[in-house]
Amino acid sequence: MVTFFILLLVLLTTPTTRAVYIQLNSSHPYLLGFLKVGILATLGEIISKRIASGKYEKLVGLPYRFLIWGLLGIIFVPIFELYFSGVRALLNKKLLPCVSSMFIFFQAFYTSLIMNLTFAPVFMAFHRITDAYIDLGGGKISSILKLKFKDVLKSVNWNHFTTFVLFKTIPFFWIPAHTITFLLPSNFRILTAALLSVALGILLSIRSSKPK
User: Fold this and answer.
1) I need a labelling partner for 203 at 20 to 30 A (CA). Which of 5, 41, 96, 111 fits?
2) Is Membrane tagged as a keyword (predicted)?
């Protein structure tokens, strides 16, 4: 796993491969969005499980988890641009308070703030439900299709989702982290967001694996 991230760092810092990445990302944003989020977010789940359990284990329904993350990556492409451009329009019309000399920072901050308070909770809830479908169905499509929606909803720990995921990770991690993300060039935002999800998963796994 470490080798993978070192290789990724080398590819992004080497001028030739960096230029290829930027060109591909500009020419095929949805395909790259699918691959970046699909690969990195799934890898993050594998690493988190490895830290929590102490050994590598195959994720239940791995292909479906990858597919869902990939589809979310496709959605992130227009969503990121929608919020970033929308906030710029609001700032230009002076509908949000801003210090003109710090326009770039305020645009990044407001984009992160508004996106994480509106889109993020919906996306996170959706992903909790899809994970529940996969887990309850044992990763088998035939079993997944037989599940009732109400039973899936009941299996999700909504108290933990609300008190921890929404009320803690969003204000204390995602809003600051995505502020930094939106300060970066557009070609690197979704990649950075995917890497941040890996980082958060690792941090939470380390925290939960410590003896209490």
Assistant:
1) 111
2) yes
User: Is the CB of residue 127 less than 8 Å from the CB of residue 147?
Assistant: no
Which residues touch 62 (CB under 8 Å, ≥6 apart)? 42, 139
The rounded distance, in Å, linking the Cα atoms of 32 and 51 is 28
Residue 58 one-letter amino acid: K
The two structure tokens encoding residue 22: 């930027």
d(CA 150, CA 135): 15
Taking CA atoms, 185 is separated from 36, 54, 80, 180, 192, in Å, by: 16, 37, 12, 11, 10
Amino acid present at 151:
D
- DSSP letter at 156? S
Contact in structure between 33 and 68 (CB atoms under 8 Å): no
Predicted TM-score (pTM) of the model is 0.90
